[in-house]
Amino acid sequence: MTAHTPPTPPFRDRQLPFAKRIDDLLSRLTLDEKIGFLHQFAPAVERLGVAAFRTGQEALHGVAWMGPATVFPQAVGLGATWNTDLVRRVGEAVSKEVRAMRARDDRVGLNVWSPTVNLLRHPLWGRNEEGYSEDPKLTSAIATAYTHGLRGEHSTYWRTAPVLKHWLAHNNETGRDVTSSSVRPRVLHEYDLRAFRETVEAGAVAGVMPAYNLVNGRPNHVSPYLREHLRTWTDEDLLVCSDAGAPSNLVDSEHYFDTHEEATAAALRAGVDSFTDHGTDSSQITGRVRGALERGLLTESDIDAAVRRQLSVRFRLGEFDPEYDPHALTTDFDTPAHRALAQEAAEQAVVLLKNDGGLLPLAPDTRLAVVGLLADECKLDWYSGTLLHRCTPLAGLRERFGSERVQFAEGVDRILLKTSAGTFLHVPEVDAEDEVRGVEGALDPALLAGRTDLPPLTTDATGTELSLIDWGEGVLTLRAPDGRYLSVAEDGHVRASADQPGGWVVQETFRLEPHENGHLLRHIGTGHPISVAADGLKVADGDGEIFEVVVVESGEDAVSQVASQADVVLVVAGNDPHINGRETEDRTTLALPGHQERLLRAARTANPNTVLALVSAYPYAVDHAEVPALLWTAHGGQAAGSALARILAGDVSPAGRLPQTWYADDSDLPDLLDYDVIGGRQTYLYFEGTPLFPFGHGLSYASFSYEGLTTRVEDGTLHVSFTVGNTGDVTADEVAQLYTRAMEPSVPRPRRELAAHQRVTLAPGEVTEIAFRVPMSAFAFWDVAQGRQRVAPGLHEILVGASSEDIRLVQTVDLDGEPSVPRPVMVGGLDAVDFDDQSDTEIVDRAKTSGDSVAPVAGVEGELVFRDCDFGEGAAGITVEAAGEGTVELSLGDGPVLAVLTLSPGTAGPYDYSTVSVPVVVAAGVHDVRLGLRGPVRLARVTFSV
Known about the structure:
The chain is an alpha+beta fold. The protein is built from 19 helices and 49 strands. The strands form 15 sheets. The chain has a 6-stranded mixed beta sheet with strand order 11-29-28-27-12-14, with helices on both faces. A 6-stranded antiparallel beta sheet has the order 19-18-15-26-23-22. The chain has a 5-stranded antiparallel beta sheet with strand order 40-43-48-45-46, with no helix packed on it. It starts with 17 loop residues before the first helix and ends with a strand. It has 5 domains: 29-316, Glycoside hydrolase, family 3, N-terminal domain (TIM Barrel); 341-411 and 556-658, Glycoside hydrolase family 3 C-terminal domain (Rossmann fold, 3-Layer(aba) Sandwich); 413-553, Trefoil (Acidic Fibroblast Growth Factor, subunit A) (Trefoil), CATH 2.80.10.50; 702-815, Sandwich (Immunoglobulin-like); 825-945, Jelly Rolls (Sandwich), CATH 2.60.120. Helix 5 (136-151) runs parallel beside helix 6, helix 8 packs across helix 9 and helix 15 (555-564) packs parallel to helix 16 (594-606). Residues 828-945 form the CBM6 domain. Keywords: Hydrolase, Signal. GO terms for molecular function: hydrolase activity. It comes from Streptomyces lonegramiae.
């Protein structure tokens, strides 16, 4: 007899389309198995040969959290390259390293949570480093390139499955899980949705991750926009993965639902497919799902829809066709090509902001003083991988110019901390067998951070000289002579046990607080002062030790000394990505920290040939009047130092461009929670002040000519062409930028708006033609009266140049479009959210599932304006649909109040709407309508009657 071979189940038949294979596999799963799939860590189904699966692998600028990997520049640095081809190649390299690492460690996931496409609306956002740009067009172009690289070029199987973060209108860490972004329809469609939409429509996105915040009063994890917008943009099944802990926030911090069963059911029905909550413990989520089923809040078909979308991603990743997966044998990891790409990306990310007198590039025989807190650092951020290679600015410059020509002063104060007993803090030496070294001799942060086996700090008669590194706002780090940072572990002892500040809660930051005749040394992570005990230094529950700070060497003096002996001084200033601005912490100011300002001043006083290089995750408002040359780069990953050195030496001409506006002062900024970029005149699109440096700005060592602008409209597309020529004497890149502007708009429109860009490399004397095709949709705005995009007819400027303010060529085109028409309010009424203008109001949720209302800020009073309302033959009555209590006042234009509608006080909740009607006399014709909201009223809708 021959053994019977069971038939191949249809879900294993690669001849069938994925949809049929998913249908088959879904039908074979039990309800419990499907419920298990809803958690981030989905278990294996051994009886079907289905492996365990984990959603989520951080890969923002290299593979993160999984050990050594190639580290590329931060996302904002990739945005500064304005180079989509480069960014696509970076995404490709990252995805290959994901696959190579997965082959040897199955903890590495193929569903990558990247890129972040939140727009960099506000430069004080703590996560500025994670986004690409304040502009939706540039953001979507860079994000599309990165996702195409992550996805891979195979028509069927994806190398990795990218998930976009963070849906939606998320730009604050302060109260991020409880604050609501008030986003009116025009801002929603023209700004926040646009970056997501254009990236999804490009076809290489596997899904999105909702953000922690609320939008218009409703948590993003139950947003109807997932259904109403996101899933209408593509025929692909999109996987929606929750952010970590956010499902529990719906009850625990947001109090949006009374029970976790209600919250989980609402999120699942809204479109969340995978719940990232309680770490690897899936029992909480699966228990909530079962409870929701028992209460009738969910059906099995709701669960099926989520599991189907998960399986769609897994099939596309080749999981069920391993022998045919073209990416299964990928071994590309830390290759020469990847190292060269990291170098290229770091070079292209450098932005030359100022170069008065041609101080740069530096002559080969320049005697250089390199100073500053970032001069000998290669900083990582929360989403970095572990460095395989590292090059600091100091190392790069010494390699490029020769060690004998480059002097160094970090510029930090060297101090001793003296106790009240007259002894000094002492850092015990680390025995050779205890010291853990990583690549190129650097202390390995993964093995040092949090160690409790190293000896705690003690005191003795002479003490150990510490480097006091002042990061501003009273936050400092302390470093031992051998490079180890003082840190506090779980046992509360202070040890020199970290290579760098880091971790979710940074344990390496302190404050020196004046107290009596000395200072308390307070540990920021625990909030407790440091005490001296018999078993070593530790955080104290009560009073701490009073220390005297003895300055052994002033950082400013050290800077002045080396600066005075050099031809040129390079001050390398900026931030540590784990301190004063990061995930969970917004910045409070644009200003450069005071200590770094003093170092810059000391260098400039000693030597007028001072170059300032800002290495930072965000813009600064820096006084550069006395500084002849200024550069900026985001933290550039493993090749940051060599890239900066090559730019300074002129081996490469800088061509990075600012991806966001650099404002001159904090007073130029809106409130962090003001998401109305139109009403608040925010970003380069609407800002009417004078920026420190404008969007798109960046200088070169070459000069460029722009000539021959031609435009024509054909078949619904604007064709633009012009030439760019290199009129300098070095090969260099130029970033040609095309902007548009409506010349006589009927509603507030951008001052100018990026429509296209191209980065080109030109040899001296070389001229190239650049051609752009701009669809008519690029000229559209969201017409709140009609509830759709509309292109207005009339004159539009076409502006071509080297930045948003450096415009070289201008033409005017007269576009056909749809003229505006008055709102037919007698027929359609007015939805409160569709206002043209407002003051002191916020948009709130009309119901927990969908819809918007408008309420006064803090429940006091606010105004809504609706322009050009057509009352036909006139109105005799008005009805409002509203909740809460208070009054709604009707006026026409700036005229007197014509009607007051009062909601009766009661115990009804915020979602219990009622209607109130009163007579009113509104004359025939077209009028502006003004609605005054007085008291805690939530207005949904207004209608008029004859």
